[in-house]
Design brief:
Layout (H helix, E strand, L loop, with lengths): L8 E6 L2 E6 L24 E8 L8 E7 L9 E9 L2 E9 L6 E5 L5 E11 L2 E11 L4 E11 L7 E13 L8 E12 L2 H4 L15 E8 L4 E3 L4 H10 L2 E8 L13 E2 L1
Parallel strand pairs: 11-16
Antiparallel strand pairs: 1-2, 3-4, 4-5, 5-6, 7-8, 8-9, 9-10, 10-15, 11-12, 12-13, 13-14
């Protein structure tokens, strides 16, 4: 923390427990350097949410990815991630990735001996909630975020047609029999019609609560460097995307985009 906080470090408390908080935004954040008065995590002060150890830029490297919250607006996902490397017993700053939130991730080993992060996240606003699964690869230059699947739920928008959807489970396992861990994502999604009488009421989503949609399983195969949609999941992919507010397949982001707070990563092996 001393490497990032331009002034004092203190402790704060929220529902997650004890937090280490800077009383000013670090220089590399959009809000930096700005002091907070009064100091409070609830006001958006810079704080670390999680830390994951691994070898992210080179095999055998002793590194850590720290996800932080604060000092950034919603368009930047309210935070980002910092990459550190341990050199001669001390942790050194390597890189900062604004808007890539890694507080609900686990490491996944590539064939070259490096680690990437396998993550799940969600973001919401104005009655719509989006869940997605993505990987994050910290190489020697910039992090690459690949979104594998995203499913939205618009049941809070009070539109005539809504979609009820979520990503509920991720299973890591060998799907090809080659001793390489692949990925299965279990999601639910369905389109529903919202009755006019419900739409006309204030807070219509409280008067109309559709049941969950059917489950869909989408498999992703790992080729040593990245995941691709399994051929046998092509039909499921078409069904999900036909419902609407869902997309299956790898997309690469290298610029800030809305992602928001994370959700618990449910991974089985």
């Amino acid at each position: 923390m001393l490497a990032f906080c331009s002034s004092a470090i203190t402790f704060d408390q929220d529902e997650k427990g004890l937090l280490l908080v800077c009383d000013a935004c670090p220089q590399f954040t959009p809000g930096g350097p700005v002091r907070f008065a009064p100091l409070s995590a609830a006001l958006g002060a810079f704080r670390f949410e999680s830390i994951i150890y691994g070898s992210f830029t080179a095999p055998g490297a002793s590194e850590a990815v720290l996800s932080y919250y604060g000092c950034a607006s919603h368009i930047y996902q309210h935070g980002g991630s910092v990459l550190l490397r341990k050199v001669s017993g001390s942790w050194e700053f390597v890189d900062h990735e604004l808007s890539i939130i890694t507080d609900h991730c686990q490491t996944y080993r590539l064939h070259d001996g490096r680690d990437i992060l396998l993550c799940q996240s969600e973001d919401g606003g104005q009655g719509q909630l989006t869940n997605w699964v993505f990987t994050c690869d910290f190489n020697d230059t910039k992090a690459g975020e690949q979104v594998l699947i995203h499913v939205s739920d618009t049941s809070g928008t009070c539109w005539d047609r809504e979609v009820v959807g979520s990503i509920d489970k991720i299973v890591v396992g060998d799907l090809k029999g080659d001793r390489v861990s692949d990925l299965s994502v279990f999601a639910q999604s369905k389109a529903v019609h919202v009755p006019r009488e419900a739409r006309d009421k204030f807070g219509c989503h409280e008067h109309f609560r559709p049941s969950p949609g059917p489950y869909y399983r989408v498999d992703f195969l790992f080729n040593g460097t990245s995941f691709t949609v399994a051929p046998w999941s092509a039909g499921t992919r078409e069904k999900l995307e036909a419902i609407g507010d869902a997309e299956v397949g790898v997309r690469l982001f290298r610029e800030p985009h809305t992602q928001g707070d994370g959700v618990p990563l449910v991974i089985e092996h």
